[in-house]
Design a protein that fits this description.
Length: about 190
């Protein structure tokens, strides 16, 4: 896998940095909506379907970051329920881990404000890192997503964003391929 993808750590850093940046931008926008717009202007903007689609897209980005987090924790052989608390100190201080931790914190703010403003009606269902890792222990897949290193199966149809897809000759979960095609490819990062 690494022979076919020697820049994986750089791709992970790029993905995580991009997700964090997008979430921080969304938080600023939502704060602006709630603090600075008149109620009349706010009601016009909040009726837009594009805004709810954007928040749901951000949820998919968070999901991709959690798949990467899960793979990283698996590589480091951390206990399933341990997470970042069980990391060696030098890892806790890394930019990648700091950004991964920040993503969940900013996501909490974003979806909370989005619900409060009526942009979305409920919290999007995302697997936690622990849930992803526990599910993957039960997998019998023989291939790994080229980006997240999460197990995927060619027979994984109708599994939504975890469905198997081929993009640019590599195998991905649909959420990963979608992120790369629509986010990092636009930045020229992939």
């Amino acid at each position: 896998m690494l022979a076919n993808n020697p820049d994986l750590s750089q791709q992970w850093e790029s993905v995580i940095s991009s997700v964090k940046s997008d979430l921080e931008r969304a938080r600023k926008i939502l704060d602006f909506f709630s603090d600075r717009l008149s109620s009349e202007d706010r009601s016009i903007i909040l009726r837009s379907k594009k805004l709810s689609i954007h928040v749901l897209g951000l949820a998919e980005f968070v999901g991709v970051s959690r798949y990467i987090t899960s793979s990283l924790y698996d590589i480091l052989c951390l206990d399933i329920n341990g997470g970042v608390d069980n990391l060696p100190q030098e890892w806790k201080e890394s930019k990648l881990i700091a950004n991964l931790t920040a993503i969940d914190e900013v996501w909490l703010d974003v979806y909370s404000v989005a619900i409060e403003l009526g942009i979305i009606s409920e919290t999007p269902r995302l697997e936690s890192t622990d849930e992803i890792r526990a599910r993957c222990l039960q997998c019998h897949a023989v291939e790994l997503c080229h980006l997240t290193l999460q197990p995927i199966s060619r027979s994984a149809q109708n599994q939504g964003t975890r469905s198997y897809v081929t993009w640019k000759g590599n195998h991905y979960m649909a959420a990963s391929a979608n992120f790369l095609a629509n986010r990092l490819s636009q930045q020229g990062s992939f």
